[in-house]
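dude i think i finally got it to work??
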Amino acid sequence: MKHLLQEVSYDTEFVRSHKLQPAWYKILKIFILLGVISAFVWLFGWRRAVVFTVAFLLLSLIVHMTYRINTHKFTRNWLDFVIVEEKEKNIRQGIGVVYYAWVILNAAIAFLISGARTG
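look at this
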């Protein structure tokens, strides 16, 4: 359990400190997610909103862990995650198209899992 808490702490610190996205966008993402969930509750009800949220978060965890494992804790290049060496220091560049495509796919899959129907 102690090892798991250390790993969660490592990831939490990485998310807080990385410069892959602007700081304002990191905060905006929270409000975007809350807005989407609120709209989902209004349109489809609480039960489907909870299912959507849980599914989306679990799928997002899979994406996070896939990147974490394949980049060796965000220290190596993989797909659209690029590390550039500058003056003996590794600099992470922005998140790429593959990552955002997975986020959109996660939202679509979570929508389907939730059983929400339009029209």
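Helices lie at 2-17, 23-44, 46-70, 97-114.
im so relieved honestly
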